[in-house]
Design a protein that fits this description.
Elements (H helix, E strand, L loop, with lengths): L2 H9 L6 E2 L11 H4 L7 E5 L5 E6 L27 E8 L3 E13 L8 E6 L5 E14 L3 E6 L2 H10 L1 H10 L9 E10 L2 E7 L6 E7 L11 E5 L2 E7 L10 E11 L10 E4 L4
Antiparallel strand pairs: 1-14, 2-3, 2-9, 4-8, 5-6, 5-7, 7-10, 7-11, 8-9, 9-14, 10-13, 11-12, 14-15
Length: about 280
């Protein structure tokens, strides 16, 4: 299993949505587009590395800059207003850390959930955990994060269902090869201006991974974490790219639906499934 898939599997939840292992928008987009990140009403193609390509935003007109790739033939705009979007600023506090792990043993003064799996959620002050793990995924948010969700998801579902064939055909016309994951219909996002991700995999055994989470404030932002590992596969990376730290355009969670092609091909009706549904 790739680090991206492991991170998504561990960090995703019903409440937060699907975790995005590559939160930054594509580098080849102009700054005027990159500053948005992923937003509600986006139709996205999910790459295997976890990054998302916006094909179009159905809540914007065909002339909008977010629809620079064009729109499907006979495009019908999805009507959405500012009142339709529910905003929760700093739904995750500054200095928040979310650690999901398959645990061998643990000692912590923070909240843990589950039996063989653990969730550690805490802000920078006083968050300590000493955990021996098989697999772990950590998300650190020095500036916190905010969420933006379309309220009437049922209306978005009906739109996606009605236009599913049209949207899949449009993606294919753009040159995308639609696999089993299909297309992503975004109804909600959680976004940050800065993040750090660490993924550790010791599922094959033979070694140990001991995670010592001892968070401390660094000039009001940032957090310290020690990951002691032996014979394990570990990956750490962070964002955003230089010069974009003032933009809240880093998408760490998405919520919505998937448009999945029918196994019967063009003769069958595509399925519209909630994220997390196979």
């Amino acid at each position: 299993m790739s680090h991206a898939q492991l991170y998504t599997d561990l960090q995703s939840s019903e409440s937060s949505g699907q975790a995005v292992p590559r939160p930054s928008p594509p580098d080849d987009l102009p700054p005027s587009i990159r500053k948005f990140g992923t937003i509600p009403c986006d139709i996205c193609f999910p790459h295997k590395d976890g990054s998302l390509d916006r094909l179009l935003n159905v809540g914007r007109s065909e002339w909008d800059a977010l629809n620079s790739k064009g729109v499907p033939r006979d495009f019908v705009q999805f009507v959405v207003t500012n009142d339709d979007i529910r905003t929760q600023l700093l739904c995750l506090d500054k200095g928040s850390v979310i650690l999901k792990a398959a645990v061998r043993k643990r000692k912590t003064n923070t909240r843990l959930e589950g039996g063989g799996a653990a969730t550690v959620v805490g802000a920078a002050a006083g968050c300590e955990a000493h955990i021996d793990v098989k697999q772990a995924a950590k998300l650190a948010l020095p500036n916190g994060a905010s969420s933006y969700d379309f309220r009437a998801t049922g209306r978005m579902y009906r739109y996606a269902k009605k236009n599913s064939r049209k949207l899949l055909k449009f993606a294919e016309e753009l040159g995308y090869e639609i696999g089993n994951e299909g297309l992503l219909v975004v109804t909600g996002v959680t976004k940050a201006s800065a993040w750090s991700i660490t993924v550790t995999d010791n599922s094959a055994g033979g070694g140990t991974v001991s995670l010592e989470l001892n968070a401390a404030q660094l000039g009001g932002v940032g957090v310290l974490h020690a990951w002691d590992k032996e014979n394990s596969s570990s990956l750490t990376y962070s964002g955003p790219p230089p010069g974009e730290d003032s933009w809240e355009n880093q998408t760490i969670f998405v919520r919505g639906f998937r448009i999945v092609p029918s196994p019967l091909g063009p003769l069958g009706a595509p399925k519209v499934l909630a994220l997390g549904t196979k």
